[in-house]
Amino acid sequence: LAWLGADVIKVEQPGRGDPGRTVMVGSPDKDSAYFLGFNGNKRSITLDLKNDDHRLVFVELVKNVDVVAENYAAGVLERLGYDYQALSELNPAIIFSRIKGFGTYGPYSNYKSFDPVAQAAGGAMAGTGEPDGPPLKPGPTIGDSGTGLHSVIGILAALIQRRSTGRGQVVEVAMQDAVVSLSKTSMCGYLETGETPPRRGSKVTGRAGAGVFRCSPGGPDDYVYIIALSTRRNIWEGMMKTIDRDDLSQSPLFNDPASNAEQINEVIQEWASSVTKHQAMAVLGDAGIPCGAVLNATDIFNDQHLKDRGMIIPINHPQRGKFKVIGCPIKLSDSPVEITPAPLLGEHNSDVLSEVLGYSNDRITELNL
From CA 293, how far away is CA 302, in angstroms rounded? Predict the structure, then answer.
């Protein structure tokens, strides 16, 4: 929301702040790269919601904002007296976004969740891994980020509806629900056959000429993913021409590509082993063959294409100095937003209370935030 231009006020615990500030941190006196990556363009204030004076500040903020978003464990905000009914009495137009591991109703609703839990219960892990191996957690945190994205979609829809009704509403997204939604492609086989689809690693089921292929010099991430499906004659012939194997473009192997997948893939592997992953992507990409080098974090943060696209952004942070963060993938032609550093803890206490609530300097000093 902040990347899209919203004024996002992050309410944090005084003295400690968001636990994300210390996740995977390299230095105890600096905010973590994790926190910097997820909190750009926001403002930070500190409020203790168990302190009467601070609670009054929170109430005044609710009266003056469009959205309240929370992701406490089930029941926490309600015990503080801030359920949707209470907030809507303060501000009938308020949109209340709540994220829960398993939602607020249903048999699992009291269960707590973290990203891996949501990935397990949402179907993502069952569909990830090799056929003869255990379920694996996908690398991306789709349980966390996927839930956040679904919440943003719901908030934007609620804001548009409010233009017609004048009323706010609850936007609830459960982490399990979000992962199920993101995993539905991998579960289509069940709807077709009534049987649980097996894990298939990086392979495309029943297709030759598609998969991950090792490249030179053979490091842990020296691979390229190629989709030169032998069932797509134009792509396959283009692939064979590009790797100087025109002699195979009309081979009898391709009369039954599914049965000959291993032999067909060996042809591609032989070529891939002779080039780097970047060379493979360049050569095949220029030839119209869908492919992608397997880029690791070092590759990503030094990739010129991503830099040109504004996906790798250098920022100047008061603690970390010059620092790289990942930019916004949504490119708006008429209203781009400059990426700014994540806030220090309580950095905007005075600004928010004076600008949003009109508090005097003396009043702000009295609160001792």
Answer: 14
Which tens digit of pLDDT belongs to each residue from 324-340?
Answer: 999 999 999 999 989 99
Distance CA 209, CA 64 (A): 58
pTM of the model: 0.93
Token code pair at residue 178:
């979000």
* C-beta separation of 153 from 171 below 8 A: no
Task: Choose, from 31, 144, 177, 222, the residue flagged as catalytic.
Answer: 144
Q: Report which of 56, 120, 79, 26 is spatially closest to residue 357, judged by C-alpha positions.
A: 56
54-91 tens-digit pLDDT: 999 999 999 999 999 999 988 899 999 999 999 999 99
**Domains, in order of start, for the chain:** 8-184+302-367 (3.40.50.10540), 210-296 (3.30.1540.10)
Contact of 45 with 11, CB cutoff 8 Å: yes
Confidence of residue 231 (pLDDT cuts 50, 70, 90): low
Task: Work out whether strand 291-293 and strand 42-46 pair parallel, antiparallel, or are unpaired.
Answer: unpaired
Q: Residue 237: what pLDDT?
A: 83
Answer yes or no: are the C-beta atoms of 364 and 355 closer than 8 Å.
Answer: no
Bridge partners of 170, per DSSP, are 96
Which two three-digit tokens encode residue 176? 């399990």
Picking from 366, 349, 354, the residue whose alpha carbon sits closest to that of residue 45 is: 349
What residues contact residue 144 under an 8 Å CB cut-off, 6+ apart? 115, 118, 175
Any catalytic annotation for residue 144? yes
